[in-house]
Specification:
By secondary structure, this protein is mainly β. The protein has a domain at 72-81 and 90-238: Methylamine Dehydrogenase, Chain H. Helices cover 10% and strands 28% of the residues. Strand 15 and strand 16 (273-278) form a beta hairpin.
């Protein structure tokens, strides 16, 4: 009877391992030895340098003004020139209260910054709702609607406000500019413009204010009654920069960042254009 010849799995595995080792030895014998250049090794990357503060500069400080306690913030940036100085801050900050300003929108809106005066925080929403809150606990003191407009009528424009010598000047990004009594929110005067407002209001001294509209025009009014004093016609652009920088005022001069990227410098009393340049 003929015997069946079968393979042993263990024996085959051993043969395969032996063949693999012999192959590696043969390859190693055929490889060329690594060529190493002679000479000193120099690092390509520079050594790490640890910077230290200059002792004289550290003693001099950053040149900041003296810290001051801020009780009022009548305009965005604390002053009409948007240079608030060096306010004192107790860090870390903790939330004391929160409240709804109303008029929550569904489209992108650059909300107006709140302003502070006489122990009250004033806000304006894109739908024209103005509120006054107690600064210590956030209680609502009064609510007023300066303009009945749809929420987010113009996406990206949320309004603006400023505490002036004659009251609270405010707009909601619509066509109406109003002056309210900060004590109770009653309307002292209001006027409707042809083009929706964009930047400002910025107080110009104690008796005037400046606003800008969607076409880049800047208009100056009296704070006592809203009479127009002068207007500078801007350059309407199809594409404008997002946001609405308010005119900056100092030393009876105005700096205006236009919606088309231009920067202009004016005499605040007469409205004379002193110079202009393009930053676009």
């Amino acid at each position: 009877m003929q015997k069946l010849i079968t393979s042993n799995p263990a024996r085959q595995s051993g043969r395969h391992a032996l063949l693999a080792v012999l192959s590696l030895v043969m390859l190693a014998a055929c490889s060329e030895p690594e060529f190493v250049l002679e000479g000193d090794r120099i690092d390509v990357l520079p050594a790490q340098v640890i910077e230290t503060a200059d002792a004289a500069a550290l003693a001099e400080g950053a040149g900041l003004a003296v810290e001051v306690n801020i009780a009022n913030a009548p305009v965005v940036g604390l002053t009409a020139g948007h240079a608030g100085g060096n306010p004192r801050l107790a860090a870390p900050l903790t939330q004391i209260w929160s409240a709804s300003i109303g008029g929550a929108g569904s489209r992108l809106t650059d909300l107006a910054m709140p302003v502070v005066g006489d122990g009250r925080v004033f806000t304006v929403a894109p739908n024209g709702m103005v509120k006054a809150f107690a600064i210590d606990n956030g209680a609502v003191i009064w609510t007023s609607n300066i303009e009945q407009i749809a929420d987010d009528a113009l996406p990206g424009i949320g309004g603006g406000m400023a505490v002036t010598a004659d009251g609270l000047a405010v707009h909601a990004g619509g066509r109406r500019l109003a002056m309210l009594n900060p004590a109770d929110g009653t309307t002292l005067w209001s006027l409707d413009l042809d083009i929706p407002l964009r930047g400002g209001p910025t107080p110009l001294g104690d008796d005037r204010l400046a606003v800008t509209d969607l076409d880049g025009n800047m208009i100056v009014f009296t704070t006592a009654g809203g009479e127009q004093l002068w207007e500078h016609y801007g350059i309407a652009a199809d594409t404008v920069l997002f946001g609405a920088p308010s005119p900056a005022h100092a030393n009876d001069e105005i700096v205006l960042a236009g919606s088309g990227g231009e920067v202009s410098y004016f005499d605040a009393l007469e409205g004379e254009l002193l110079w202009t340049d393009s930053g676009a």
